[in-house]
Amino acid sequence: MLLKVGELARSTGLTVRTLHHYDAIGLVKPSARSEAGYRLYDTGDVARLHAVQALRHLGLPLAEIGPLLDGKGAPPEAILAQQIQALDRQVRQATELRDRLSLLREGLLRGESPSLQDWVGSLSLMATYGRYFEAGELQRILSGWNRNAAEWDQLKAGVRAAMDAGLKRDTMEVQALTRRWMGLVYRVMGGDHDLMQRWGQMYRRETSAHGLNGAPPTDMLDFMEDSIEFRLGLLRQHFSVEDLTAMRWPEDTERRLQAIEDESCEAMAAGRAPASKQARALRARWQALLGEAAGGDPALLGRMLTLHRAHPLLLAGGPLSGEVRAWLVSAGDPGA
């Protein structure tokens, strides 16, 4: 039985215009014509049309369907693999979009009756973040900042006070703040140097993000970037760039160092010598912590143990004082 173009269109749900287009490009050509010149499709034509529809549902472009059906295109398994990859990409993109919308929704829900300006600002900031981070990375970063919000606000207040007082980057006060700033960013980013680098790049390039959602304003970012660069210059005199990126500090580093500082001060006040059992036990705890951060590299551990000899400013703001460091180092000296 032969079908006219209108009949075939109704039975397949396609438009007559679509069937005419398929005929024009040679994809599905009618096998016959009526005496009046109307297109007539036989069972073979209909079967080919159904194959075209099936392949279109898989996402194949028309340009690839014709050669595939004619046996001139890529093998079916290659076509299917290509389509699976395309679908995987779409799934990733959809998941990424969903995660970003969830982040945006969570941020807006924390506020009260967000205005249109809030919406626009949040969308703009999310677009800025999206140029540097995937949604999963951004979720980690923002969660980290939220967990440390109180400390972050306190630190920004301290930096602002130092700026207002006209303190310079090479003062103990500013370097103590710089150490805290770098340490907080390290914790928020989970020690991921790639994330930290991209976060810094974003704030250097995207001035529109300055001061939004608790972020520091431009003048504070400039002040801290200058102070951080100065501190890194001091560190690079004692460590290589590879050393600095290889260090992996445990999350409880500050607490453990503060405990060692307090117990060492008590021991020193009680007249304990570096050769005493207590001093050697404290040194062992200190060395074990540094060993974790050094990843078991003995050469790097040795440089970390003698950091107090590098530059006094590097000790600014650290839990361990210069006196305690020297006492702990002496505790490992056989002649002590």
Write the topology of this structure.
Elements (H helix, E strand, L loop, with lengths): L2 E2 H8 L3 H9 L7 E2 L5 E3 L1 H15 L4 H8 L6 H34 L6 H15 L4 H13 L1 H16 L7 H17 L4 H13 L12 H19 L4 H6 L6 H17 L7 H18 L3 H8 L16 H9 L6
Antiparallel strand pairs: 1-3, 2-3
Helix pairs in contact: 3-4, 5-6, 8-9, 9-11, 13-14, 14-15
Helical content (DSSP H or I, runs of 4+):
55-70%
Portion in beta strands: under 5%
Give start-end ranges of low-pLDDT stretches. none
Outline, from the CA principal axes? elongated
Q: Main beta sheet, described?
A: 3 strands, antiparallel
Report the C-alpha radius of gyration, rounded: 33 Å
The first-to-last residue Cα distance is 106 Å
The topology string of helices and strands comes to EHHEEHHHHHHHHHHHHHH
Number of helices: 16
Mean pLDDT value: 84
What is the strand tally? 3
Spatial arrangement of strands, main beta sheet: 1-3-2
Structural class: mainly alpha
- How many structural domains are formed by the residues? 4
Oligomeric form: single chain
Protein name: MerR family transcriptional regulator
Keywords: DNA-binding
GO molecular function, one term: DNA-binding transcription factor activity
InterPro entries: DNA-bd_dom_put_sf, MerR-type_HTH_dom, MerR_fam, TipAS_dom
